[in-house]
Write a structure and sequence with these properties.
Length: 74
């Protein structure tokens, strides 16, 4: 049986030397894209201050994102 895929939207920002991450995921890519557009409209020019990433894993959790990042780091 094929496992379900999830699309993740991750925003990473540093404020006062503290790192923060925002995470949204869905199995429907269009939902994630709509969420990206909504957040983009709501924060205006602040978007230049953060890094955003979209990736795909087989789990909805942020833990699956962290595992993916560890794999990339090798």
């Amino acid at each position: 049986m094929k496992s379900k895929s999830y699309f993740h939207y991750i925003v990473i920002i540093e404020v006062d030397e503290n790192d923060y991450a925002y995470h949204y995921s869905s199995s429907v890519r269009a939902d994630v894209s709509a969420h990206i557009e909504q957040l983009d409209r709501s924060i205006g020019d602040v978007k230049k201050l953060y890094g955003m990433h979209m990736l795909k894993t087989n789990d909805k959790s942020f833990e699956s994102v962290k595992k993916w990042i560890l794999i990339l780091k090798g």
